[in-house]
Amino acid sequence: MGIVIIFFLVAILAAYGAWSAFKNKNILGLIFAAGSFIVFGGFALLTLINSGYPAAH
Questions:
Q1: CB distance 4 to 47 below 8 Å
Q2: Which residues contact 16 (CB under 8 A, 6 or more apart)?
Q3: What angle do CA 40, 42, 46 make, to 5 degrees?
Q4: In sequence order, what DSSP letters do the residues of 15-47 get, joined into one string?
Q5: C-beta separation of 33 from 18 below 8 A
Q6: How far apart, in whole angstroms, are the C-alpha atoms of residue 10 and residue 23?
Q7: 25-55 burial code (b ≥16 CB/10 A, e <16)
Q8: Residue 11, Cβ neighbours under 10 Å: how many?
Q9: Does 55 score more than 70 pLDDT?
């Protein structure tokens, strides 16, 4: 379950990075930050949905 929490934190930082890159008109930074947000946030969300919280064994 710890990896889901870490991935949610990475997704939050990626969202902040995407917002910062958008404000600074940094297109390449925006692409990478938005991609990271989608990948890490999606993985964390789907793992949370699949495993439940706390993890049901």
A1: yes
A2: none
A3: 120
A4: HHHHHHHHHTT-HHHHHHHHHHHHHHHHHHHHH
A5: yes
A6: 20
A7: eeeeebeebbebbeebbebbeebbeeeeeee
A8: 20
A9: no
Query: Which pLDDT does position 56 carry in this prediction?
Result: 58
What are the structure tokens assigned to 48, written together? 């949370």
Give residue-wise pLDDT tens across range 21-46: 999 999 999 999 999 999 999 999 99
pLDDT, the chain, mean: 91
Residue with the two structure tokens 């999606």: 42
Name the token pair of 44: 């964390």
Using alpha carbons, select from 46, 42, 40, 53 the residue that is nearest to residue 14: 40
Q: Is the dihedral of CA 28, 16, 11, 13 positive or negative?
A: positive
